[in-house]
Amino acid sequence: MKYTRFERARIIGARALQISLGSPVLVDVSADVIDPIEIAIVEYDKGAIPMTVKRE
Amino acid sequence: MAAKSAIEVFLRKGVDDKTSQKLVEGGYTFTKVARASDKVKRDLEKLLGEKKLKQLLEAVKSKERMPRKKKEKPLKKPEFAKKQLPVKVPERTPMEVRLFKILDKSSRVLPHAVVSEIASRLEGVDIPDKLLEKMIDLTIERFETHVVDPNESVGIIAAQSIGEPGTQMTMRTFHYAGVAEMNVTLGLPRLIEIVDARRVPSTPIMEIHLEDAAQDDLEKVREIASNIERTDLIDIADVDTDINTMEVIVKLDRKKMERKNITPEEVLRKLNKAKGVKGLAEMRDANIVIRCDEPSYKKLQRISEDTKLCPIKGVEGIQRAVIRRVGGHFVIYTEGSNLEKVLEIAHVDKKRTSTNSILEIYEALGVEAARNAIINEASRTLEEQGLTVDIRHIMLVSDLMTSDGDVKAIGRHGISGRKSSVLARAAFEITSTHLLRAGITGEVDTLEGVVENIIVGQPVTVGTGAVNLVWAPGGKAEGEK
User: Fold this and answer.
1) Is the predicted pLDDT of residue B440 greater than 90, yes or no?
2) Checking DSSP bridges between strand B281-284 and strand B247-252, what pairing results, if any?
């Protein structure tokens, strides 16, 4: 399934919020990456985010 | 008294005194005798004797009026000549078949329109399958970049995309361009006209194409054009009023009549049918004379006016018809428009003939035709001004206007004023009235639109706001890119 750009933004956004609130990061990122959004993007690219969308 | 008049009737028809008397005393009237059945005739024979009866019947037969016609037969369903219906999707050309085969093989999809566009450009070119495949790959790639994402707020984008070029259009176009010395509204006024779904455009115009049999024959085209152009009596004659004799004298202009193919008899017939002059006109020498039936100058005046405006020929609403050569064929352009009547005229090509009056198209051909008309008119208006707007924006507007089954304007009286949501309506205009009425009638707002959700303070239902996230543990579940 290919995500639309809205879905991608929403997923990354939701994940970034979780990370910023202290959620354990699910992928290995180098120590100098501290921006939760950047981390979420890396997670998204690797397909590690445990979220998907419900389409009607 | 009654008996006396009954006898008189017989006498007038040439039946002798005695017989009439006898008949009436026997309770017969003239019509009864005239329409006598065999049984009645036998009764009459008893009454009168054979010889008299024969005389009587003879006399009656020749004089009797035809019995009144019985009720007219119920109208038969009109039988239309069976013509082949136009096929919506034309049969696939060999090139299209080839392209679809390649698509099917890799189970990819392209819209029919795109495929046939490619095929039409490749027609007659010899191309190996491999190259075709590459072309399709590229086409799909390009196509996908042009596809709109789900949840995209297309409405706002359409509004901006049409609105911005709109600001570049001259506010008021005074110079009219277009067809053969005819005035055509263009630019912003025309665009507003289309979007407002005006009943009658400020310059209604028709473009009448003709069938193959007629479109190259100038004589025939002229004839058709003169049959379309509205001709009033004043266009082909001088109308004088003679106060002494209380007459209106119509001096026919033979030259003009010849040019328009009208005979004096035709004029007379039309005049005798026209309102106000019904049955008063008669030929005298070369002129037509209308005698006033009341000794009143006012009436005479009115007759004179009605005579001048008496329609002789042509289609109602069409003031002028101009013939122009377009692409080697003759096309009739008209000032004024009446699609329904024009389509009924022989030799008019019903497929290509069109008008710029959208409401007329809707009435004659239906909503789908109206939808297409809006798209065509709007995009042509923008194009003429040198502005390019993606047709999909215009299609969206057109779809919105016609989605209810009839043509609605954009704006207060049309779409914006009839939204189902109270809050959306209140946000648009006259807020308090809408809210008050909604309160009184107990309207329910389901908060489905954008405006309602903004008012309430919720994420809107477009773009990111329309995405529903679900928890999908197991990492690389279906959420794979």
Assistant:
1) yes
2) unpaired
Write the residue in B468, B470, B475 that is nearest to A48 by C-beta: B475
Region for B425 from its dihedrals, namely left if φ exceeds 0, alpha if ψ lies in -120 to 50, beta otherwise? alpha
User: Pairing relation of β-strands B311-313 and B329-335?
Assistant: unpaired
Provide the token pair at B146. Answer: 């042009």
Q: Which helix (H) or strand (E) holds B290?
A: strand B287-291
Domains and CATH numbers, chain A: 5-46 (3.90.940.10)
Which H or E run includes A40? helix A36-46
B127/B121 Cα distance (integer angstroms):
12
Residue B480 contacts A, CB cutoff 8 Å: yes
Distance of CA B175 to the CA centre of its chain: 30
User: Is residue B353 within 8 Å of B207, Cβ to Cβ?
Assistant: yes
**C-alpha B332, offset from chain centre:** 18
Interchain proximity A6–B151, CB inside 8 Å: yes
Count Cβ atoms below 10 Å from residue B85 Cβ, excluding itself: 6
Helices (H) and strands (E) in chain A — how many of each? 2, 1
- Show the beta-strand stretches assigned E in B65-219: 205-208
Rounded to 5°, the CA angle B204-B210-B212 comes to 165
User: Is A53 in contact with B470 (Cβ distance < 8 A)?
Assistant: yes
CB contact under 8 A, A6 and B479: no
Model pTM? 0.70
| DSSP category for residue B57 | H
Calpha distance A22→B473 (Å, rounded): 18
In B200-325, which residue ranges form alpha helices assigned H by DSSP? 218-228, 233-236, 254-260, 264-273, 297-308
Residue with tokens 């007459």: B247
* Residue A16 host element (H or E): helix A5-20
Question: Do strands B237-242 and B205-208 pair parallel, antiparallel, or not at all (unpaired)?
Answer: unpaired
- CA distances to B286, B321, B333, B377 from B262, rounded to whole Å, are 14, 17, 22, 36
Do B479 and A4 count as a contact with CB atoms less than 8 A apart? no
Angle at B311 between CA B310 and CA B317, to 5 degrees: 130
Helix residue spans in B83-147 (DSSP H): 94-105, 112-122, 129-146
Q: Is B39 exposed, middle or buried (0-12, 13-18, 19+ CB in 10 A)?
A: exposed
Work out the average pLDDT over B16-41: 72
From B468, B473, B474, residue closest to A54, measured CB to CB:
B468
B352-403: pLDDT as tens digits: 888 989 999 999 999 999 999 999 999 988 888 888 899 999 999 999 999 9
